[in-house]
Amino acid sequence: MTEVLSDAEKFQRQLRLIVLLTNNAPLSVDEISWQLHMSRRSTYRYIEELRKAGFILKKSGTRYFIDHHSPFFTQVTQFVHFTDDEAVTMNQILNTIYDDSPRIRHLREKLARYYDVNFIARVETDELLAKNLSVLYEGVQTERVCILHDYYSPNSKQTSDRIVEPFLFLNGNNEVRCYELATGTNKTFKISRARSVELLDLQWSHKDRHAAFYTDLFHFSGERLWRVKLILGPLAADLLVQSAPKAKDLMVVLDDGRYFLETEVCSLKGVGRFVLGLYDDIDVFDSPELEEYLAFRIKDMQQKISKGRSVTPTMQMEIQRTIEQTQEAEDVADNT
To answer: What residue ranges are annotated as transmembrane (predicted)?
Structure first.
């Protein structure tokens, strides 16, 4: 039997649906149906009615939510609604207040609920950085070209305007990864080194050339990634976690007490040094590139050892003399 609702009841459901879909927690049709006590068919109909009314409904997989930029939603909340730039500013102000009272926590939670908190929560309080970051953020979101005015390069020790396509923030939003039009390459720019940032009315035209920049567990960075699989003993696992705490979340404890680690690295040099330094506590498997690199390094070490065996007696005397002189100098330093 079809449920007959009054206009007031229908309106109440519409309002409750709006509240559910603006709580910054995308919901599936089943979850909405359960919370509003109605069928999946009715849920789809109500969602479609909201879309026709002007709300911007977005999907994350099979889950729905209302974009806070929806025209109608913005009109209703125009006196308390913040733009993304204003939200960044509000977050900066809250970050300068060393207060963890319920009132301040509530304000932070409100920002987290309605705005891109993953972006604004990491913004530093530096005024120049915040201003530049705000423009670059819009450039990333709208896929537009920006000019980094008077950007200072520590390599050339010169300042110049850099025309770029910004696409990725790094290092706590202190740096931005961009495709530079003049050089045709991807570069990482420190945001505070630009006097100002200008947003151009020009869309990206090299999106297919954008390459992300990664930093691996062994503190090497680059655009290319190699996948490696290791089995670590307790010592190797402990040392790696001390150096890179996030490695702990990637490890799986095996039945024999060792740890399985599968990760991607930007350079074989970093992980190679780690494995060679703790070779008796690490096993490598199903990692052909790393295995080939290790074989090359071991062969190179063997050649150096062989050369060391062919040192002449004269060279051995010079080496011994240098060692003794160094020891004498250290003894003198200890006695002063």
So the answer is: none
Give the whole-angstrom CA distance, residue 19 versus residue 123: 29
Reported pTM: 0.45
Domain with CATH 1.10.10.10 in the chain: 7-76
| Amino acid making up residue 44 | Y
**Span 76-103, pLDDT tens digits:** 555 455 555 556 656 655 655 545 566 6
The phi and psi torsions of 172 (rounded to 5 degrees) equal 65, 30
Q: Which residues, listed in sequence order, are joined to residue 253 by a DSSP beta bridge?
A: 259
pLDDT in tens, 214-230: 889 998 888 888 999 99
Angle between helices 29-36 and 7-21 (to 10 degrees): 130
Domain 127-212: CATH class, spelled out: mainly beta
Pick the CATH number of 7-76 from 1.10.287.1080, 3.80.30.20, 1.10.10.10, 3.40.50.1820: 1.10.10.10
- Strand partners for 252: 260
Q: Which residues of the chain are in CATH 2.30.30.30 domains? A: 127-212
Q: What does the alpha-carbon distance between residue 292 and residue 298 come to, in Å, rounded to a whole number?
A: 10
Q: How far is CA 11 from CA 22, 58, 71, 318, in A?
A: 17, 22, 20, 94
Q: How far apart are CA 336 and CA 333, in angstroms?
A: 5
